[in-house]
Each structure stands twice: as structure tokens, then as C-alpha cells.
Amino acid sequence: MKKELSGKNWLKPYENDAWTRWVPREELAPVFEQEITGDTIYLRIESNGNFNSYGKWICSTDNFPKDRELTFQVDYLAEQVGFESVSIYAVLTWKDNQGNLLARDYVDERIQLEDGWKRLQRTIVPPDKSDCMTLELAFRWTEQGRVIWRNPSVFETNTLKSKRIVRVATTSILSRHNPEENVQAMLHYLDEAGRAGADIVCFTETFNSVWTDLEPEEVCQPIPGDLTRALGAKAKEYNCYVVFSMYERDGMDIFNTAVLLDRNGNIAGKYYKVHLPLAEAEQGVTPGREYKVFDTDFGRIGIIICWDQAFPDASRVVAEMGAEIIFIPTIGHEPIQAIARAKDNGVYVVVSGMYGPESSMVIDPMGKVIATVRTQNPDAKEGVCVVDIDLAERHFTHWLSMGPCLCEPKHIYTNERRLDTYSYR
Question: What fold is seen in the domain 20-160+397-421?
Fold first, then answer.
């Protein structure tokens, strides 16, 4: 979302000698140029014809609110740059009053502006003990082209950091081997999760028909249909979102479809399972052809289904589309893969499995399993796991990429992908 901010710009980018040039070695120096026109500052960096050219414009200040939420913005225009996410980046560096490095953060929300420029933006609270803030505007690793940076700004946007608590629920239910009884079990555990105050509840892949010895063609339904209406009534009753998977009939096609119901019980979105096991494809199920994310009132979520999690690209695409939580309804039980998908992308992952209560879990962005149905109900053979997560919480690793300081895996993995080297044949 584009933020139009007003008030004091704490960066003071127009002062004389505010910006300095940085290169790792002089022989790699690109071409730098600075221009101030009226109230607009332009900072240019152009490749010197060598792919390895690398340079930054840097501006520092110790005059900024230390305990307030700040929004950073800088516009840029790329010219003849093949991979902008590889060659163009902005970083915030934080130091204490002794000059010790505390943390470094990518400014990485990219927004297309109406005038053809793009904007990098991020809202963040400075780390504790921050005394110096440095904005770095970089250009690297391209044989040609240039970037023009425009009007870097730092504005105060709030008073203090706020939490974004979401109560997520996942389920582990034994198949009753009968579609009607399976649906009744879903409704029962939706009651349980709803009474616990869940904001969103996730069910196992195609649970209404799983292990009933019926073919997808025999159990598929239209959407909307009986199953969506039954679960939608409970979603409305408990004012919660519901994620589940079912076989959907749409004309001649049958899809393994993940459905998101909103708090009013309405269909908020659908996702068709992209990666089909051969056995499922041979049952006449049609694969999906795209990944989707869905905006809720607490944040953006993604859904992948079972076999999708075996392919890291599926989760990566969903995460890069902005998903803060990835839900995985699955008949299988692949905890290593689910944990890897969380850690790979620095996002929460919620799994609803079929192989015992430990197969349904909530995983944090560091790859730690923070709760399972088993941990919350040690003696139960099935049940519900309900846990609060804070989407505003930052998850740090020391020395992950940016030197001897704290940095966030989620932003590191997104910004340091070498898209220019990935070629699938």
C-alpha cells in the first residue's frame, strides 16, 4: 500500500555533504552523480560496464525518534536493469552510541508509482539502544544500466509498536470412513475451536471424503454447495475464518480445492492444488495452474495443499506474494518439509494433518514447532490445537548475512535470491 506521509523528514537528505559514496574496492566503483532540483534530490549510480561494479549512496543521522515507529521511503527508476531485486536494494543500518553494529534491515516493500517510478518502503521500530541510523542505497551486479534514487525520507508514523495477535487453530481428526460422519466431525471440532475464540481454523485435506474408498468423481461437489454452506454457518456463528480442502466439480473438471470462508461464512477465495501426486491425477483430478494469497482482517495468508509442500517453489511464490501465514491441509505427514517451508521463507506455517495429533502443528518463522494437537492434548487421539501468534513480532538471527548484528531471515531470504542465476530447463 502506498503511504503518503507528511511531517518532519528525519533523514535531512538535502543538507550539504549529507550523502557519501561507498564502494567495496575502488576498481569496482560505478559512476556516481548527485543533483538537487528545487525540493527534489536525485542520486544516480551507473554501471561502469563491469558486471562486478558495486556502489552505494549513504546518509546517516543520530537525530530521530528512538522509540517510535518510523516509515522509510525512497523512490527509484531503473534503466536497462535485468533483475531489479538483485541489482537494486536499500538497507537501514543501526548502531549504538559506541558505534557498535546492532541490526541491519532491508527496505523491501516495492510499490509501483503512477509516474513510472517505483518505491521502496518499510515501517519499523528502531532496535533498542539505537543511536545512529544509516540509509544505504545500492546498485550492483549488472554490466549495463543505472538506477536513479529520488527523495529518500524517514517519517514518524506512530507512537509505539503495536501487536497483531491472531488466534489460529488446526485440527487432527480420524476419518469416520463415511462422508456424512466426517462432515459432522468437522462441525464438532469447529464448535470447539470457535468456543476457544479462534480467528481462523484449518482442516485436513479433503477430510469430508478421506479414507472412504470413494473416488473424487463420487464425492465432488460444486462451490458453493452443501459442504461450504454447512461450514459457512459455523464460521458465521463463531465469527471466524475457515480453511479446508474438498473435491470440487466445475463443469467437466474436478479440482482438489482449498476454500477460505470469511467470518460471515461467505467464500472469500479458492486455490486449486497445483502439484498432484500421480495417483490423484490418474483419478481424473485436474491440477491448478497458479498460486494465490488472500487478504483477511488480520493479515495476508496463503494456502498450499499436501504434495505442494514437497516443492519449495510453491511456498516461495506464496511468501513473495506477501503471505504472512501459510496453511497446509494435508493427508501426508512431512514435518521436516513443513518446518523447512517456514524457515525457508520466514513465515508462520499451520499444518492440518492426518497421521496422529502430532501431524497437526503451528510452526514459527524460525522453523520452531510452537504447538501441536499432541502438545495441547497429550492423551487425545484427535482434537484441536489453538495458539496465539503475533504477526508484528520480529524474528532475528545473529550474523545470518549482514555482519555481526541482528537481521531477519524473512527479509534476508527474499532480498538475497539470485534470480539472475535461476534457469529451469
Answer: Jelly Rolls (2.60.120)
